[in-house]
Amino acid sequence: xxxxxxxxxxxxxxxxxxxxxxxxxxxxxxxxxxxxxxxxxxxxxxxxxxxxxxxxxxxxxxxxxxxxxxxxxxxxxxxxxxxxxxxxxxxxxxxxxxxxxxxxxxxxxxxxxxxxxxxxxxxxxxxxxxxxxxxxxxxxxxxxxxxxxxxxxxxxxxxxxxxxxxxxxxxxxxxxxxxxxxxxxxxxxxxxxxxxxxxxxxxxxxxxxxxxxxxxxxxxxxxxxxxxxxxxxxxxxxxxxxxxxxxxxxxxxxxxxxxxxxxxxxxxxxxxxxxxxxxxxxxxxxxxxxxxxxxxxxxxxxxxxxxxxxxxxxxxxxxxxxxxxxxxxxxxxxxxxxxxxxxxxxxxxxxxxxxxxxxxxxxxxxxxxxxxxxxxxxxxxxxxxxxxxxxxxxxxxxxxxxxxxxxxxxxxxxxxxxxxxxxxxxxxxxxxxxxxxxxxxxxxxxxxxxxxxxxxxxxxxxxxxxxxxxxxxxxxxxxxxxxxxxxxxxxxxxxxxxxxxxxxxxxxxxxxxxxxxxxxxxxxxxxxxxxxxxxxxxxxxxxxxxxxxxxxxxxxxxxxxxxxxxxxxxxxxxxxxxxxxxxxxxxxxxxxxxxxxxxxxxxxxxxxxxxx
Amino acid sequence: xxxxxxxxxxxxxxxxxxxxxxxxxxxxxxxxxxxxxxxxxxxxxxxxxxxxxxxxxxxxxxxxxxxxxxxxxxxxxxxxxxxxxxxxxxxxxxxxxxxxxxxxxxxxxxxxxxxxxxxxxxxxxxxxxxxxxxxxxxxxxxxxxxxxxxxxxxxxxxxxxxxxxxxxxxxxxxxxxxxxxxxxxxxxxxxxxxxxxxxxxxxxxxxxxxxxxxxxxxxxxxxxxxxxxxxxxxxxxxxxxxxxxxxxxxxxxxxxxxxxxxxxxxxxxxxxxxxxxxxxxxxxxxxxxxxxxxxxxxxxxxxxxxxxxxxxxxxxxxxxxxxxxxxxxxxxxxxxxxxxxxxxxxxxxxxxxxxxxxxxxxxxxxxxxxxxxxxxxxxxxxxxxxxxxxxxxxxxxxxxxxxxxxxxxxxxxxxxxxxxxxxxxxxxxxxxxxxxxxxxxxxxxxxxxxxxxxxxxxxxxxxxxxxxxxxxxxxxxxxxxxxxxxxxxxxxxxxxxxxxxxxxxxxxxxxxxxxxxxxxxxxxxxxxxxxxxxxxxxxxxxxxxxxxxxxxxxxxxxxxxxxxxxxxxxxxxxxxxxxxxxxxxxxxxxxxxxxxxxxxxxxxxxxxxxxxxxxxxxxxxxxxxxxxxxxxxxxxxxxxxxxxxxxxxxxxxxxxxxxxxxxxxxxxxxxxxxxxxxxxxxxxxxxxxxxxxxxxxxxxxxxxxxxxxxxxxxxxxxxxxxxxxxxxxxxxxxxxxxxxxxxxxxxxxxxxxxxxxxxxxxxxxxxxxxxxxxxxxxxxxxxxxxxxxxxxxxxxxxxxxxxxxxxxxxxxxxxxxxxxxxxxxxxxxxxxxxxxxxxxxxxxxxxxxxxxxxxxxxxxxxxxxxxxxxxxxxxxxxxxxxxxxxxxxxxxxxxxxxxxxxxxxxxxxxxxxxxxxxxxxxxxxxxxxxxxxxxxxxxx
Lengths: 612, 940
Prior knowledge:
The complex is a heterodimer.
Chain A: H1 45-49, H2 58-70, H3 75-85, H4 89-98, E1 110-115, H5 118-121, H6 125-136, E2 149-154, E3 166-168, E4 171-173, H7 181-186, E5 192-193, H8 194-197, H9 205-208, H10 227-232, H11 243-253, H12 265-273, E6 281-286, H13 295-302, H14 304-318, E7 322-327, H15 332-348, E8 356-361, H16 371-378, E9 402-406, H17 407-419, H18 421-426, E10 428-429, E11 432-433, E12 435-442, E13 448-453, H19 458-466, E14 475-480, E15 486-488, H20 499-504, E16 513-518, H21 523-537, H22 543-562, H23 566-582, H24 586-590, H25 592-609
Parallel strand pairs in A: 1-2, 6-7, 6-9, 7-8, 12-16
Antiparallel strand pairs in A: 1-3, 3-4, 4-5, 10-11, 12-13, 14-15, 14-16
Helix pairs in contact in A: 2-3, 3-4, 11-12, 11-14, 13-14, 13-15, 14-17, 21-22, 21-25, 22-23, 23-25
Chain B: E1 17-22, E2 25-30, H1 35-41, E3 65-68, E4 75-76, E5 87-89, H2 93-108, H3 124-132, E6 157-159, H4 169-178, E7 183-186, E8 193-196, H5 211-215, E9 221-223, H6 224-229, E10 234-239, E11 248-254, E12 257-263, H7 276-280, E13 295-296, E14 305-306, H8 309-327, E15 332-336, H9 342-355, E16 361-363, H10 370-379, E17 397-401, H11 405-408, H12 410-421, E18 425-429, E19 438-439, E20 442-443, E21 446-448, H13 455-468, H14 474-480, H15 483-494, H16 500-507, H17 511-523, E22 527-531, H18 533-536, H19 541-554, E23 565-567, H20 574-579, E24 586-587, E25 591-592, H21 596-606, H22 618-626, E26 632-636, H23 640-643, H24 647-656, E27 659-664, E28 676-679, E29 688-691, E30 696-700, H25 712-722, H26 732-742, H27 751-757, E31 759-761, E32 805-810, E33 835-839, H28 840-846, E34 853-857, E35 862-870, E36 877-881, E37 909-915, H29 921-935
Parallel strand pairs in B: 1-5, 15-16, 15-26, 17-18, 17-22, 18-21, 22-23, 26-27, 27-28, 32-36, 33-35
Antiparallel strand pairs in B: 1-2, 3-4, 3-5, 6-9, 7-8, 10-11, 11-12, 13-14, 13-28, 19-20, 24-25, 29-30, 30-31, 32-37, 33-36, 34-35, 34-37
Helix pairs in contact in B: 8-25, 9-25, 9-26, 10-19, 13-16, 13-17, 13-19, 16-17, 22-24
């Protein structure tokens, strides 16, 4: 085991033996791939696919099942999926090619997934990557025919406080160094069992000091799956409240969506509640794809009932009876815990006749964290952004009114209902009410969840909790709010963490990810990465994002090669304008934020040279 | 000059009137409109690339951004709905800059070859670049797709991905308009590419309807004819000459060369959609096989001689007169063509009645929809379908019987599929698992694969369920139907012999299946019946039509939108040729020749005295010919030697005649028995009207002068004159004015009206000056709806030990009827020969594999063709087409026919299939005759 520099929590929770994915329930057997590979060529395609025929998002579930069983998707599987779901071959081909989890060539004996996102970058992922490339002689992300090992780039495994991170089969590797490359490549390096690796978060009294844990207080239970314990702690007692009361509490709380947009939750709830249709849905967005974020993952792993209680309350308030959790596939343990929690909850009959919740596992697409893309994906299609209007609250899943909230938002609801919206609103500053579980990671001595009321400055948060950089060097930049968040430079560190204050400096809170870089950070490279990430994850629907990301990346590569010029900066500026104002969704629309913030000093310098 | 019709960006969704301000201008719009549609309708331009008004808004190109006052940022005007009082700005510096920026990105991944591009001058990308004022592309040397190779696998269009802007219009057109889902975008981000589900277009599910090509705003998807000949410079609005859907097309032309056919958005039958035949397979009109000079010969063993029109017509008239002199006036007759215009048909039947002085006129509808005419006339009072195509959009349950619309009526099928995808339910009654039973996003609620020949039993069982389970619409019956006939029918249909349980074994479908389907139809708010030749081409074809009419009346599914009994008619003008008096017993407008008053009207107008008795039907003519009593025939645009059943009999009859006159584009099979060949005109040369399956009278306008020098009606007129009857029309419009004067259902029709309003559906008269989309709304044409007893009589044609399989015949998408047109186009790439489909079980027991040559024998004859083992047909049933003359499919079909109309029983022939290693005797004789007859053609 490699546990360098990590304070491993002493009582991490392990999956009890014998807990398996429900069988015959039409639920993804997604974690088969975490077991030693059991390839059984005898299993017919039909029997793999057929169980998903009547399920939401069936084609994606079926393709996942084929992947889990066979390791890749061949033409025969495409034809069979098309046949069973009554789709065209073209459609299935389109779906397969959209999601990065699906491969259309036989897998090599070993696949290593190396995280290349910002939090890991800040902790030396580039060096690990280079070492691995020179060790293996292959470029990461490129398939080499006949190679025994394939190294795939992934972008955030939610272990951001412990990077650089890699994932192979049923093991995670954390805290990687360049010197690990040889053993990593040969398979000699021992990793952490996934259950252990995902439980590295600290909740020691020292760490909790100075936090206001409303959501995460529920995440410290001994056995997160112990429903009785959750109930005896007052869990689900809120379900007695009637729908309108719930709405009023949420209105009073001033709760805003924690997924990134910060939209007032009550307006969404009111909108869904006022739709006069029989079928409505509550969808939990658990596609926590932002690098440097892991709050959703921890809630799902450690307080699954809290999330489900939040969903139940939301469903009651808006009049929905069916809920879905759209979970990213990079969170295997969260899936298993949620699955078991759902089984136990169902067995308890607590939500009988009120809400039925189903877990859906994505297939590798950052864009599916955007709510309309998520809904497309949940319906089993390519995760293309939908134009708004119509709003999902009016026409969402299957064209029905749908309340979409992220995990943290929903998990805040039980506290609000239990203690009152007013009390929640009393925390925080102005319209940034309540607490936010910030996620501190990157080049810090200590990272993890920091749940505090809105209003603490970035500097205070990072210095109080982070304990300085891991490298020991001065902090050079802090990216707040994931890959679409701004790089704050030292003169901006005193900005309070509120929606309003961040917005005033052209930054945002996003999903609360705070990634610290030391003064060695290459901000031009970070800007290039912002475009590269957008290029990689763009759904490809709108032109500014589809072409702009590539052109932006190329432009910065040109600058890296040959230096900046007035013309290049002007073009970059124009491109950022187009992407900001003309993109269909926030992926293209916000990519200029990290770019501009990172390049600010360079742009200023070039402008000063030639002020014309 | 741009030939494209105005495009309002997003579809017309209707709604209430709202007012908004765009750039300060007050604009009126409908509440279902987008801002884009409102602006473009008001003449305010907004640049756009991914939007087109045949497709739902998508919002991907971002060129159509506008500012809406009171809102942050910019909205894409295609996805943003209008609302009362909205204030919109479509142009300012910020918007201009953004649009240039988007365009600059587009062009950074687009070849800069406008001058040599096939779409130069007809390219939306080019237009928009100009519109937004793009002056430079500053991105240099980056990644691009401009080296991607073109896919030229489709014979009609090329996919050049190097020019693709990934607007998804093609993908969406394939889904929303055509409903095939053959295209997708693969990958994501910069790697998003348009792909099919296969390696290339030809091997994919693509049906070559052309919707993607039409939707493409660039040269990415481009007609090969445009690549070869350049962009056309003028257009003529006309009507397709293939199936009974009657699609409107703009023939786009350079000089007098057609460059492409573009389906017309304003066409009521097709609303801008098309299929592979109408869109692409028009090249036959210029095919080298086309004969444009009149020819005559003394006998069929003599070589053909090119002659002048005068000589040809003189020769024909002399022979016909000689026959009448020696064999009497009833020894000659004629056949009108369902492919010719109403005006041409009118003149032919008039010539026969007035110049030949008999009623020996019949039409190819005899062999397809004559039972429709008979059955619907008996029950409803008129010989035509009840609805317009648009009506299907209101149907909740569609009962599809003996029709395969995706192959035979593809453009209507797309409309039907749109409705099915939107939630209507489908019941398919067909021995074959046709595509509509299950294909992407379409799945029939019930497929009842009945044994061929048991239609009437099936319908009676349906009606029995309706009657015995209390599903009758009694108030409709009481108000609208003849009570006496209803009581008789009720008593008849109640009988146990009509119960599903009693008939299930005979039909070959479970009684529960029948009951469930019958209930679904009967309980529907709007239940619509659509049917094809699988209903009519049976010995009980007319009975079946009446059984369906009974069912529709019993459930109240008549006289409204979304209901009805609707024949999907085969040929472009089969409805019209019937309307025009092509039947031996009926004058135009389906009025009995025996009716003295009606006849007197014609006598007065035509200055003649019409014979008062019905003449010969086609089978009568052929039988009489074999007996030596019928010696001369004028056949316009029909190939009875290939299309009619029992080919040997047809050949024998033709061989017996002294004067066979064929008017056609090609030396068809019948012409091999002819003495006079009168070259015909293609639809591109015709002036007139076609009437489609929904009774819609569409204009056919000439794109070029007749290649033969004479319009077909002029030829007929000359022959009538040579026969001694004075006939003096000046134009097709002149003929139409006579049609209107003598046909009550057409009395309001004129070319002037059609040119003004586009098209009308008959009846079009004083009572309905703009035509009649839905018939029988307040009362049936005959007054009260008549129930007719429809006792099931099994056909005499039965599977037995010697002929254990039942053959049924049909059509395929790429080919049309006898294939005379489609075989002379690239469409043969999809079907180079007729194929016999048989079920795996039947193939297995006979040792037959896909691709094997097999012999198929009936009691009438034998042919050889290739087999395809299939699960589309049920065990015991085999299926083929008759598109290729060499196959001789009708060599094995029998003499049996509908009891009322003589429509042949093409759909049931008992056969045996065995492996074969040589062509059949008939096929060998055919090959020899073909070679001889081609030899006899004059050289150039």
